[in-house]
Amino acid sequence: MANPLQKLNVGVVGLGRMGQRHALNVLHRIPRARLYSVCSPAPHELEWAKNNLEPEGVKVFADFDDMINTPGLDAIIVASLTELHIEHTLAAVQRGIYVLCEKPLTKDLSKLGQLMQDPRNEAGSKIMVGFVRRFDEQYQEALKSIRKGTIGTPMILRSQGAEKLDKSGFFIEYARHSGGIFVDTVIHDIDLTLSFLGEDCKPKALWATGLIAHHHEMSEFNDVDNAVGVVEFWGGKIAYYYHSRTTFHGYDNCTEIIGSNGKISINLIPHANRIQVSNLAGIQQDATPGWIERYQGAFVTELDEFVSAILDGKELPLKLSSAYTGMKLAFALQESLVTGKKIEFDENGARKPEGLKSLL
């Protein structure tokens, strides 16, 4: 058993909004971790780190190689540009350093498959992809309830993610390199599907469609700002996804799991708090402003479980095989969205003849 007083030295790669949140959480909210170092090539992010982290004794690097080769580093959180995720992750694993990587680990499904076949099992035991919704208190309670059999056998999952409309121009440039709405965002709902319906779920068929309501520039790179996807699994289970990037009231994320003897609903009305105002205008209640506010507690739980698993010598909370399955479904849904074709799989969950086409 690990010494409860031992602390894990953690570094953060990339100091955008996500990286900053992770760094501050490690620094202030994870008792068994020490924020050992951070890294970013961006001058404004380095300035933030020098003002907010360096006074706390955190090592600040502009070069990733300098950071990863500094003795004493036990684990890193990869929140860099998506194109660099796999490079930063592999560099860490080769040095025996654990990794919590923001999704996607890579946009190349074949590379993820190669990691799965690592004969030393280094990748499988040292890498965790960050699917933060699994660590949300409400979703964890729902999973406990399902495992107790309270709704019988789970059969259908309906999950929705809807983000507030952003016309600033930032979103379009981000979306252009994101891999598409299913790969970038619906993948969180796909991961929840594996959690609730079973990690061993094998797809039978899937199809997707979508439209552009506001961000018409997205037609330039074959993406949409509203999409629907359906996945049918062998064994009689179905998942339905809806995602929007054009809501006006705030961040609207909800999930329902329908079983043979009932259903569980999570966050069907996205309340920011429990205050209601009733007047001549009707009944009003504030919505959740964004995904960071919705999952701020889950980000802490995710890090805490990641750190504790390493220190206590246990398996990481999320398996790399689950991330691979989720990516396979996300890429296939994105392809169906673009081509308009239904995609089918055999009973082993393998894609039928034509094979998965790369859209990236």
Number of strands: 15
Supply the helix-strand structural class.
Answer: alpha/beta
Query: What is the radius of gyration?
Result: 21 Å
Named CATH topology of the largest domain: Dihydrodipicolinate Reductase, domain 2
Overall geometry comes to globular
Taking the alpha carbons of the first and last residues, their distance comes to: 45 Å
Q: Given the structure, what is the number of helices?
A: 12
- The CATH first-level class of the largest domain comes to Alpha Beta
CATH level-4 homologous superfamily of the largest domain:
Dihydrodipicolinate Reductase, domain 2
Secondary-structure element order, N to C: EHEHEHEHEHHEHEHHEEEEEEEHHHE
Instruction: Tell me the helix content.
Output: 25-40%
Instruction: Identify the CATH architecture of the largest domain.
Output: 2-Layer Sandwich
Number of domains: 2
Strand sequence of the main sheet, in spatial order?
12-11-7-10-9-8-15
Major sheet details:
7 strands, mixed
How large a portion of the residues is in β-strands, by DSSP E?
15-25%
